[in-house]
Amino acid sequence: MEKIAMTVQQVADRFNELAQQEKWFEIQEELFAESVKSIDPVNSPYMGYAEGKAAVRKKGETFVQTIEAVHSASTTAPVIGGNHFAVGRNMDLTIQGFGRVQLNEVMLYEVKDGEIISEQFFY
Question: Considering the domain boundaries, does residue 2 fall inside one?
């Protein structure tokens, strides 16, 4: 029996459910396509570009390893437009080599065939 692909709304709803619990690696495992791309702003001091589910996970793990303290973190509900959805993410972190940093970003996700095929961060 063929698996019916989730709609953008269903992917966004599941993303939001997990994001509210800070389950970011579960989001990657469950919702990301094998060929997913992860794109940070050009010249970002924090992260860069990764392609492929394993590389994107490694990018996330590398970032998490630099976090010395999480003072607060929150994610807005998703806003959907076509094959994309976006969330706002606010974090107050202490990061190795940077000290205490306030990251206020927009995270944009593209969905195809019921999977997230790209994530892009604007901060």
Answer: no
Q: pLDDT tens digits for 18-72? A: 999 999 999 999 999 999 999 999 888 778 899 999 999 999 999 999 999 999 9
- The position carrying tokens 């997913």 is 36
Distance CA 72, CA 60 (A): 18
Q: How far apart, in whole angstroms, are the C-alpha atoms of residue 18 and residue 33?
A: 17
Tokens of 57: 């996970």
Domain extent at residue 53: 8-122
Contact at 8 Å (CB) between 117 and 34?
no
Q: Which residues have a Cβ under 8 Å from the Cβ of 94 and sit 6 or more positions away?
A: 67, 68, 69, 71, 100, 101
**Global model pTM greater than 0.85:** yes
CATH number of the domain residue 41 falls in: 3.10.450.50
Instruction: Evaluate whether residue 29 is within a structural domain.
Output: yes
